[in-house]
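Help needed: design a sequence for this.
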């Protein structure tokens, strides 16, 4: 705890629960209550206060099991796997996962705009991690978080911190917005090529362009066996990229490894989606520097034949998804599924080798630029964090 100097400057030792309340508002029928947006833990990005993704209730045939309400301006905190540092402030109302806690200021001593930076601080996260329990999916609790002790700055200091940190946040959000616009550009480029080639080029069955393999069944659920091996699942398939930082592990024997091990250039496609048929068929290419890993049966691997450029193949699959072809092909009941049989009946435009190479290079270049934007953001994040934690200390 800080000493007398902090107190003389107006800093005061408090507990988190003294100045913050957990909001416990719920709705048993979110849609009937007028809510249209659903936010899960997967929609929160690490070290970003913005919420840029959500599910629309109108696109969820079975509704949602989430009942926790949040309001615009409140702070969302991911209590599961707190090391992911998921904190956000929303600009809209909605319902969220039970793995998200909702906070708001409960004291005139704490500016509402200062609260999200307080929750983002290393001190708060150290406390959250120290109070998390569970081996596979550790969670912390409000009761433990409410006991977090810290030095609360005077309102004048809070206002200054909000001004400074708000400026750095604007820079970060500008980079994130540029990445989002780039995603839209990539989709536009791919859709344009797909439409043009659909009219001008011959069509070929997917099975003429690649060898299709369904991933390995995950059973028994947590059997690591004698050869635990990382594997890729739906959660690892992002927007035309694989997210390989957090891979789960299960047993793959020698025969399984021979069949399911991924190679550079393999295209992975999501076989099903519980939210919307339009999400079925998201795809990504396994990179040259990818780790040793296999893939689960929620994914289909397309191993391109020698005359097919893998990135071109991914682009045409994405074009088919964006145009609704894959959604129309999928079998949709409770969950939309493509399956090997249905996917094998899909036809894609088949360009000549030179045009495949050109389109593949164009898409690769755009995705590489997106990666550079993210790398820039990743390099500035530690600086932002250091500034934020410095402003949380007396004398700053």
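Sure. Designed sequence:
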């Amino acid at each position: 705890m800080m000493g007398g100097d902090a107190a003389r400057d107006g800093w005061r030792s408090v507990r988190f629960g003294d100045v913050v309340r957990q909001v416990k508002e719920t709705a048993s029928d979110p849609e009937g209550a007028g809510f249209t947006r659903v936010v899960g833990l997967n929609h929160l990005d690490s070290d970003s206060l913005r919420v840029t993704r959500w599910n629309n209730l109108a696109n969820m045939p079975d509704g949602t099991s989430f009942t926790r309400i949040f309001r615009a301006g409140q702070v969302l905190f991911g209590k599961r796997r707190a090391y992911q540092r998921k904190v956000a402030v929303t600009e809209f109302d909605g319902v969220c996962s039970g793995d998200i806690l909702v906070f708001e200021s409960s004291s005139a001593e704490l500016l509402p705009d200062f609260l999200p930076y307080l929750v983002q601080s290393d001190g708060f996260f150290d406390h959250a991690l120290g109070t998390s329990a569970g081996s596979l999916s550790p969670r912390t609790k409000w009761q433990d978080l409410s006991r977090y002790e810290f030095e609360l700055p005077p309102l004048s200091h809070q206002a200054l911190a909000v001004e400074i940190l708000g400026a750095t946040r604007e820079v970060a959000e500008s980079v994130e917005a540029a990445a989002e616009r780039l995603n839209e550009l990539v989709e536009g480029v791919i859709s344009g090529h797909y439409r043009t080639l659909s009219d001008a080029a011959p069509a070929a069955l997917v099975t003429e362009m690649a060898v299709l393999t369904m991933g390995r069944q995950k059973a028994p659920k947590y059997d690591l066996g004698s050869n635990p091996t990382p594997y890729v699942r739906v959660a690892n398939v992002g927007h035309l990229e694989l997210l390989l930082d957090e891979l789960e592990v299960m047993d793959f024997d020698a025969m399984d490894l021979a069949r399911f091990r991924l190679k550079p250039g393999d295209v992975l496609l999501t076989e099903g989606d519980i939210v919307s048929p339009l999400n079925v068929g998201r795809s990504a290419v396994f990179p040259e520097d990818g780790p040793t890993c296999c893939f689960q049966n929620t994914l289909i691997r397309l191993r391109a034949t020698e005359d097919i450029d893998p990135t071109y193949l991914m682009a045409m699959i994405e074009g088919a998804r964006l145009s609704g072809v894959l959604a129309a092909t999928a079998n949709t009941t409770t969950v939309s599924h493509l399956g090997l049989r249905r996917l094998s009946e899909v036809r894609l435009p088949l360009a000549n080798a030179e045009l495949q190479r050109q389109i593949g290079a164009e898409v690769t270049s755009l995705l590489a630029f997106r990666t550079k934007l993210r790398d820039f953001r990743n390099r500035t994040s530690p600086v932002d964090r250091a500034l934020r934690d410095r402003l949380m200390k007396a004398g700053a």
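The two ends are 16 Å apart (CA to CA).
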